[in-house]
Records
---
Amino acid sequence: MQAIVLVGGFGTRLRPLTRNVPKQMLPVVDRPMIEHVVAHLAGHGITRVVLSLGFHPEAFADAYPDGTCAGIPLHYAVEPEPLDTAGAVRFAAAKAGLGDGDDAFLVLNGDVLTDLDVGDVVAHHRAAGTEGTLALTEVDDPSQYGVVPTDQDGKVLGFVEKPEAATAPTRWINAGTYVLEPTVLARIPENRSVSIEREVFPAMAVEGRLHAVASEAYWIDTGTPEAYIRAQLDLVDGTRGDLAAVHPEARVHPDARIDRSVVMSGAAVGEGACLCGAVVMEGGSVGASATVDHSVVGPGAQVGPGASLRALTIIGEGQNVSDGRCLSGARIPEDA
Ligand code: GDD
Ligand code: MG
């Protein structure tokens, strides 16, 4: 089976980290996010991946010059302008010849990290004989997602993208993995931006042509600072994996305190510094006695001695935080 992976968004909620870098090229512990996504697909028998690109497409081609990622051949479909999620699918499918035959294909939101059993979603799709099948996951606050009520047989009864929290009919939400028949492509108007969540899926639900499969597998959408940090902590603290939290090429002073944090290659942490729920990206540095609490130090950024970053502060690439400065919930630079 082939997959289209949507990676063309602007990653606005992760700025300034995404000012010049697509969200899916940001590192997640030890590799760019897209490599985690493609490796998961490879593990489920997907043989070819079409990356649906828009914002900084060159970042992907530069990172995978031989055209393979996690052992799978990549194909690139670069939109001339953002076409939104359904427009992007139509465009990428046409570029890669995906709708030419009768074969169903997968579509994924490229910012989701999950252990979802993709084969199980495909099997449900075939058994239901339907036009599209979504994976669902359960969340505490559905208001940030596509909310998907179903009947007992898994038929989708409606699709409400980002409803007011109090009005959400269920806590089961669109997990961003779809199996689609090629006929879905003809439902997407050409040459304009079209949202799969706001136009295509609601219309398919009305016709009873959309099914869903609930999954309890690990799932996270990495698109906010909180989730970008949590996805990485989950990979080092045993929740989802046991990757090394501190890269062997990082320099951490023996008297620094590192509590549930990730320190990437070439980063440095000084004497008496305290990291808790922190991510220090490649070449970032945290000065002596500084504190980084549930915050991110961007690539090559420098946090001065005694400074304190808290409450989802994000320091952009190459930025400096002066000695002793206290930041809470801040983005540096502020205008990124
Ligand atoms: N090629 C392309 N073109 N890709 C796009 C575009 C576009 O115009 N717009 C967004 N994308 C990509 C993003 O890069 C991301 O990988 C994916 O599409 C989803 O966009 P997000 O901006 O991350 O959407 P979201 O997180 O608010 O909501 C979506 O994901 C939720 C689950 O993670 C929706 O699909 C929700 O219904 C869903 O619950
Ligand atoms: Mg997202």
---
Amino acid sequence: MSNASGKVFVLTGPSGVGKGTVVSELLQKVDNIYLSISATTRQRRESEKEGIHYFFKTKDEFQRMITANEFLEYAEFAGDYYGSPKFSINNYLSCGKDVLLEIELQGAKQIKEKCTDAILIFLAPPSFEALEERLIKRNTESIEKVKIRLKKAKEEMKEVNLFHYLVVNDSLNEAVDNVIGIIRAERCRIK
Ligand code: 5GP
């Protein structure tokens, strides 16, 4: 006995909290869950690959996708646009596969409205100072962009009550285990 349609899991948390690491660990450990690859207008980082980390778009291309209603959700974040393309998400769900969206707060709110069964998980840092240190050490953004991201982080952390689950990323292994625990429990939930 199984559900015909897959479930949508949303993982949100401030930039630098370690969402990417948690996601890549859990994808190796949990079967039948697929990461939605987002489109973004942000510049590609050296370590990133087209179609694996993101679909990198110009602002015009992104705007065309908005107009064509190709996004399940999209948002502007720190001066760039990010969106979850509907196409692959719907394909996975209709085959009974679960989908994981790693997105920021505005997008999580849109998903909560549109997909009322979606399970929303907030990944929080152990402290704001720890987040600041991580973002600076990561060295992927200019100091101005880091400041914008930290301001966003403060706003995001105030809205934790919109989420179904809160996981603190103090120890990576524990955070991954907790997210996996949530996914497994939700798969067994009757109501
Ligand atoms: P980054 O530039 O660090 O890769 O991502 C910046 C923020 O955008 C992160 O919080 C990330 O989770 C979020 N993000 C990535 N893809 C999407 C998306 O498709 N939609 C939304 N709303 N946020 C996204």
